[in-house]
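Record type: monomer structure entry
Structure origin: computed from sequence
Chain ID: A
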Amino acid sequence: MADVNESSTGTPLTLAIDIGGSHLKASVLDQAGGMHGEPVRVQTPDPASPEATIEALVKLVEPLGHFDRVSIGFPGVVRAGSIFTAPTLRDKHWDGFDLAGALARAWKRPIRILNDASVQGLGVISGQGLECVITLGTGFGFALFEDGRVAPHFELSQHPIRKEKSYNEYVGHAALEEVGKSHWNKRMKKVIQTLATVINYDVLYIGGGNARLIKLPLSSNVKIVPNAAGITGGIRLWDERWGKAFLGKSPPFHEAAPQSDEQESA
């Protein structure tokens, strides 16, 4: 068996996964971050318990073939491979769940996990100045980078923006369906203005499945980015040139024990 960090060609292939409140998406990336074959997706289980989500992920990636390592974007607070909040998955069993360890045992591959907005940011940022990333999907994702270094994650989605409404409740997908696209765009204008005042960013990147619905006039430093960055950004979790994105060190990962020859041939 080849080393778990290296494919038979000597160039590692990265399985990149984007876990969302509505869909699970995955693709295998080459060293340059290009998709190696067609991406796959499936609806997120309901209820999205850790066990149901892992089972769905294992089935989802079966058609993708060989990979050497795994990058995952998760919608919540992630620390050392464990999950501490998962607001859009709405299942209390995520609190403290060792997702990296569980998937390392399932796939016998090293796993790195970061908040999904941070992974999307890695796919689009320039690495210069103060760059802010928000994602618009089931909920509202947020990440902040300074000169390519990701700030400690905090759940802006849970913070009130108007009266008692959090960002999730104000511009999440449920709010979009409730108030319609026109009024939702007015809310997004307020969100962008608020972030400009509070963060004073150099560039704001807006991604996620609902970013395409923004019809506001945007300033030159506000950019709509492809939703695919939630997948392609995963390659940078393994790129040492972007080690500064993790405050001077690589994110913790779980290394699965190598299989024996007997296990490999089974």
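Annotation 1: The chain has two domains: 14-116+230-265, 125-225.
Annotation 2: Confidence is low (pLDDT under 50) at residues 1-6, 243-250, 259-266.
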